[in-house]
Amino acid sequence: MDSFIPFILSQIVAAGESIVTVWGMIWWIALPIIGLILFWEFWLLYVRIQWSKKINWKVLEIRVPKNILKTPKAMEQIFAAAHALQQSHRFLKKYWEGEMDYKMSFELVGRAGGSHFYLRLPEQFRNLMESAIYSQYPEAEIIEADNYIAQMPAIIPNNTFDCYGAEQILGNPNCYPIRTYPMFEESVEEQRIDPIALIMEAMSKLKDNEQIWIQLVICPIDDAWKKEGEEIINKMLGIDVEKKGGGFFSGFQGFGFTLGELLFAPFEHPSQEVKRKEEKQTNLKLLLSNPSTKNIVEGIRDKISKVAFETTLRYVYIDKRETFKRDNISSITGFLKQFNTQDLNYFKSNILTLPIGMGLFFKERKASWRKRMLYERYCGMFSSPVPAGKAPSILNIEELATLYHFPIAAVGTTELEKITSRKGGPPASLPLVE
What we know:
Number of helices: 12
Helix content: 25-40%
Number of strands: 10
Structural class: alpha+beta
Strand content: 15-25%
Distance between the termini: 108 Å
């Protein structure tokens, strides 16, 4: 043991000397490369911040009529219209001016005075979204509202207010769907289940300074994410997808056979190829006859068939310190658990955003810091880091409409702020007094 420690120390010293020697030989190459990489990252950060500051954000409040008979299918069309935010970026626009994809935030806010549906979006897309909403809900009323966040302190938690919340991410790969509104629907209106009823009822019982904020920040994406779903379906069904290749030895792509099949054809009986095809068809039928496999395949196909958004789902519960209780947080988690399934996908809390103190020291300070970061990210619509090996959540328009839609007539909460009359312009035949 006495000789082992000096040996380890000598090896460490020798390794350090080797590193210093190598660095002395290559520093004149490595330093400029490292400097360029750091400069490029800081430059992108700078131009993107400057570009974001130029966006003129508007907060719209959507007030709905008393009796809505439309299902969340109508809200699905509104999210489909929001996909128009996606655009291609030229090189100079992206890397010189910092242009990025636009995003918008659908927010459900509950206070002691009632529940409110808000939409935060860049000013240039206001007409687009108003037209989409009016096309599905002609009797809705859309007004430009004061930013409710500006009425709160800039920093929470503080000496007066405390908060709690988390961000939700998908537990399985993004191509697996959550439970969506068609699974809640019934043909008989009286038996129709509205998944948003739970959280609306919880918001209707808030008292004094209690507030519940639920936010969906969406950014449109292209179709690249669908490849993972197609690969999973092919793997589950045992379908071999031939990879495209080039050159003479890759095969004769246009003739329906490969070079290997051509060379071995004289030595192989034709019945063997027919037998292999029959076995694949039999295995495919057996897989599709399994209800669980069939349900997963159909679920993935349905999800990847619709346009989707990179989505940040978060919630925040706020109250004064002297009356702060976590009773309402269970209502929020219960609302989110409605959309979980055992064989497809589910929501789980992003461990990196949970306001808990990790480690052995300064637990309360760490928890308070995480609460502050959660609150600031909500206010700024910022994205958060995700655990290693996970990608940002992707939800299609059907899933988004399930999470955020106007309650149907069967939801009996009285605290939702609704319009009691319909506004309209004067008739064309009305005489004018000069």
